[in-house]
Every structure is written in C-alpha cells, then in structure tokens.
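Re: your question from the hallway

Yes, I did run it. Sequences:
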Amino acid sequence: MNKKLYIILFSILVSASAYAGIFDIYGIGKVGINYTVAAQGRGKSSVAYSDSLSANMQNPANIAFLQKAGMEVGVGTQLNAIEGIGYTNGYTGFSCGLLKFPLADKGGLVIGMTPITSSHASYQITTPENTYTETSSSEGSIYAATAGVAYSFFKNGEVAVGLSADYLVGGYNIVHEMDFTSKDYSDVRIEKDEGFNGWQFTGGINVKPFKFLSLGASYTHVNNISHRQIANYMVGSNLNDFYSHIDTFEYNNVNLLPNRFAVGLAFMPTARYIFTVDWMQYQFTTLSPDFSFNPFYEGSQIQAYNHYGLGFERKGILSEYVPYYKSLTYRAGAFYEEQYMASSSGVPVKTYGITLGLGLPFTGYRNRLDVAFVAEYNYGTIYEEEGIEPLNLNEMVYSLNFSITIAENWFKTRGKYR
Amino acid sequence: MNSSTASDITRKAKINRQSSITLTFFCIVIIMIASTSCTQGIFSTPYGGKTFLLDTLSYDQSVITSTKNLSADASGNKLLQDKVGKYLGLSTEFIIKFTNFTVFTHLADSIDFVMNEAKIKFFLDDYWGDAGDFSIDLNMVDPDTSLHWLNTSDVEKVYTDIEGRTSFYSSFSFNTSDESIEIPIDLNTISNWYEYPDSNTGFTVTPSAGSEGLIAFYAMDHKGTFDPRIEIQCTLNDTNGTYIKDSTFSIYCSGDLQQSVNERVLDEDLFYLSQGNISRSYIEMDSLRVDTLLGPRQLLNRAELKFLMDDSLSSIGENDTLKIGARLFRSDYWEIDSLTYIYTALSNKLTSIEDTVVINIVQLIQYLVSNPKDMEYEGIFFYLENDLYDFNQILIDPDDISLDIVYTKVNDE
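Structure:
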C-alpha cells in the first residue's frame, strides 16, 4: 500500500466518531456501537462468531481465530430524518481502526481504537412568543484504546478465551445557547467541555460444542472513570463576548458506563452459511446521578440498555476458479434495541433496525472491503411535561459504513517470513 | 495462450480490481462526507428540557449606595476657546499675550515704520446667557520677568504667580451678536512689548462687574482664521522720511491660558452632568455586590437603568446629538486620581428634558456582580457624550431611578 493511502487513512482516523440522531442529545448519547462493519451487516451480532479477517470488539475470545495480520479501518456516515422535521443531523467520520496479529497457530492480538459512545445531536426550544430560542447541542465520543489477546484450545479451536483492556478516553462538547430575537438583549452561552477517561476490561469465551454450533459470552467491567469539566459561562454574541467565567471541576470514580454482558450463538449448517443471534445488555439503571453533566429531561427514567441481534452471512468462495461475484460475502440481519432512556412510565426509546452487508475481497483474497447499510427506526419520548402531550418522535437513521481490511506484505508473518 | 500469458492476465485483472475497489472506497467516503455536510437542519419544538431560566430583578433608588458629583477642572491650555464670564456656576477668565513681532523685524533696513493705531481683535465663537451687551476688562500683568509664563498646562501656578500683580487697563463693551471685537490699545504698550520683550507678560481678560453670561472667543489653538491678534496700522517711510504707504500688520497670539472656577454648590443627593462646566456624577452600587441572587454564573441579558431629568435645572441644546455615557470606574482614589475605567454604555439620544434616559449597563453590572466583593472602589460614572456645541446640563434626581435586570441562570443552580 502506498504512502498516499496511509495519509488518507490517517486523515480519516483523526475525525470523530459516527452515529447521529436526536435521541443522542441526552446523557452519553448512543451506546452499542463497537461493531466491525462485517458485524453490522449481520444485524450487529458477533459475540459467537467472527471471520478470520475481522477483529471482534464484542467478544475478545474471537480474536483467537484471526488468520492474517493486517489493519482494519472503518468509516461511517449517517443521515437522520425526523417525522415532521426532515433531515437534521448528518455525520461522517471515523468509526474504528485496528491492527491485528495472529499469535502462534491458535492465538491473536488486536490493538487499536474503537468507538464506545457517540453523540451528535442538537435540540432547539422556541418560546411561544418567539422572544428567544434555546439551543442545546451535544457533540462527542468516547473511544476505547484497546488491546486484546486471545487463544484457542483443542484441535479445531473448540474453546477460545480472550481478554481485552480498554483505556477509555474522550468527551463531549455540550453547548447551551440562548439567542434573543431583540438586539436589546445580550445572548448567553454555556459551553461545557466534558472529558472522561478510565478503564474497562473484557473477558470472553467462545465454545464450539459441535462443528455447526458456536456459543459465545463476554463480560465487561468498567473501572475508575474520572471526569473533568470545564464550563465557560459567556455573555454576548459569538464574535464579541463581553463576559466569560470559567469553572473547572474534577470528579473521580464516576459511573459513566455500566458493566456490560453479552451472549451469542452462531449456527453454521455448512461452512459458508452462518446464522447468528446476540443479546447484549448495559445495566444503566443506577447511573442517573452521574449523568448530571448532560441531564435527561425531568421525569424521564434510565433503564437497562438491551440489544438483540439476528444475523446471516453467506461467505464467498475464495478461489480464482469461480467468477468474482461468487467470492463476495453477503450479509443481512435485523436488530432490536431498548435504549437506556425511557419515559416517565418506563417505556424506553426503541430501535428497530435492518442491515445489509457485503464483503468484497481483493488482492488474492488477503484484503477485503466491507460495506454495511443499516436502517434504524427509533421511536420514543424525547420530552414530557405536565400539561402537554408527551413529545414522541419517529426517527429514521440511515447509515452506510465501510471498512477496509488489509493484509499487505508488511503484515505477512505466517509462512514465508516465519 | 500459454500459462505465462494467462498468469499475466490474471495478475493484471487483480491489480485492476484492487485499484477499482480502493478508488471506489475513497470516492464513496468523499460522497458520504459531502452528503452529510449538507444536512444543517435542527430539531425545533416549543417544549424541551430547558437549561436556562430567565428571571428578572427590579431595583429602585435604594440600589444606589452613594453618589458623588465631581467637577473636572475646565482650566487649561490648548483649548479651542478662551471663555470669559460667569454662567451656571462656571466662572472663567483667561490670560493672553502677543510676543511675535517678527513682521516688524523682517522689514527691510531701508524702511522705517510709524505705528498710528493698534487694536486687539477677538473673534466671538459662542455665548451662553441672555444675549445683549457684554463687557470685559483688560488687566495688564506687571512687567516683571518673574511673571513670564509659557503656554503651560499648569494654569493654577500662573494664576497664583500673578495674583495681585495685575492692574486694570481698560474696559470694553460689545454686543454678544457681534462677530468680532476690536479693543484699542495704547501704542506705548505695544512699543514696549516690541522693544522690551522682557516686559511683555501679557494681560488678563475678565468679565466686567455686572456682566452676565459667558462669552467664548476663538483661542490660539483653534488654528483657523480667527486667531486672537493685534492689528497695528502703520505708516511706512524710507530712511529719508519719504512716505511709501500705510500698512496694517497683524501680531498673532503667542499664548493663552484659561482659568475656570466652579462656584456651583451641588447637592450630593443629585446627579449633575454638564460639559461647559465639566461635571460628572458617580454612583456606587455596593448592594449589588452582596446580592446573593446575582453572581458569576448568572448571565445578564439586560440591565436597564432609567432616570428622569429635573426639568427645572436641566437644559439640552438643539445642536448636539446628546447622550449620556456610563462607564465603570476602577480606582482606589477615584476622587483625585485620573480615572481608570472599563466598558462604555450610551443612553438613548436626548432631545428634550422630557425624555426618559435609558442606558443598558449590562456589561457594567455583569462585571460588578461577578467580581470579588472586596473591590469596593468601583462604581459607575456618568458623563455627557457628543456634547460639542451647546452648554448642556442635566440634573437627575436619584429618587426617580430604577434598574431592571433581565438575567439567565442555569436551571438547577
């Protein structure tokens, strides 16, 4: 791969993460986004299965099945459309970047950056008398700088275990603005930079009791997250603020992310057909006090986040003796999620999604371009207040995600150079 | 086709496919970025979890903890006008001298001159008071070299030095509607000034007893065609005494200083603003500093200070676009120090004493309430802005003052 390609990939890496949607406005935004593009194509299910090229962010045990060293970089783009509003937030940016190395015959190592949370949303309140508008926006992400290692046992890797340590780093830029219609009044703005860092550790296991069946489970323990807040209170227009007051706070051991538990099943009736089922849960229930940095609306509840994914993959035939289209990998899936934000009556924001995916091998099947299209339908209450009808929104989020998985000569460690 | 050719074709096909896929990948990324960058809409609704809470505070005159009127010294040099007279508590006079006789020294040696008549000429610029007759006195300063003065800024010293060292010379009456006046002066005095420059210490111009009002002449620093001058009518002869012609020479002013005394006694409970007799008013609002409702995290949207002018003692001219300016002063000894100030807020344009004065002093109040409470030597001072032509004065009764604040605070704080 030439230098230009590396430069382009690096420039993509430095942009922020993906996923845009109005429901991201509260708390830490969207969670459950650390999937490879291949897993996204399978209905965001990968606890019990991943192929030999992709890294696996849901279950580190699957890293053991890596067969080629290389790198994987993903980008994504999202458009959302709210019923009655139209397209609002759109976003394109980096989603993940990973380096992968097989270890011995039955092990694997992955290091890189993967997204954990993401928020790109704006919400504007207009006063009935139109004297001023209040706009809040939340922009930011938390990433995991991850290092995972795994090893499989027995002849065909019937049991694999893996561990990953993630250093969490990132934050949000949360801006609240009040803009008056009349120039006689000074606009005000509070801009808060919320920085977080901490650790999480994930252990995973993959068991294949039968050749056609794989079971996976992983558990993530979040540990010792610290929070630094810089709040700038400002008065005046954007170009000519005449007053600024800055507060800085630091907090330790905040509960930004709960522990996570995931289980999955992969059914492989033949070597080329894979059916996957996942369930993943974040126990957000106890975290509400620590979301004061970007609070939910009054009366809302915080519940456990649940993700249910169902996927299918038809692997391509990697042979020079078949037409190219037969070497493509086709994926499809569906998922259902209960987001952690819920109405006062306990009804969570619900997400229904369908996915389609494609894997295009190139350069002697060592490399692959993965594409996943995800269409999400989000429905839920975004605001409630006594005396008004709950503000329920229907939102469609369309995302198109790409990743390029490369195993160039530099990464060739098995065989020729070993 | 041999095996080598087939292998080459396959390899080229792979390379082409790789190039196509890589190119497609990045083209799609660029298209994705372009497409999402076009979506700039924002979700908007009348309802939502508000971060801000808008609130108001209203204060009456009790917000003012102290007031102070300060008259700035209107004395000085390099002024555009030399004022003489008394008006609205301002008493002024000026001292002036003419030392530049180079028009005579530059005459050719073959020419003699004989002074026939000399007049001091002043051009009138403005007048405040009841129009009509006005009279001034000229008082010669003793011809003592110790009383020499330069065009100095230390007016007080000059006037202290000449105190009791002047003698009445002449009075001159004129009408305030005159464009200029010409005051006769004795030729011997002019000759002495010319021949013995050390004796030229100038003269003072004071209002004659009984003169009402304030007259303003163009001063030396006006730098126009109306400089004060002495016009001397001479006859020019040659060295044999043969008449050549009559000629008038102008000796322009070489120095002038104005001394002003504020004789007005002001009620400390009132604000008084004027420019001719320079007055500024100061108020302190220490109660705002300890107001627990306001602090650095309360963001002020508007702070509207309103007051009414006292129509019995206020006057606003027609020629000025008059406004009242407010500034935040910062000085430990602001009564005697030069002012250090920050922020400036201007009122609405004032055209009549019936107008309500409204000044949005939001920046000033934000600073006052957001900074350490021990900075007690801070307050707001008021002055007249754009007071260029008229002798405006404004009197404000603090009892009619109100301060209405609109501010924003964070909902849960």
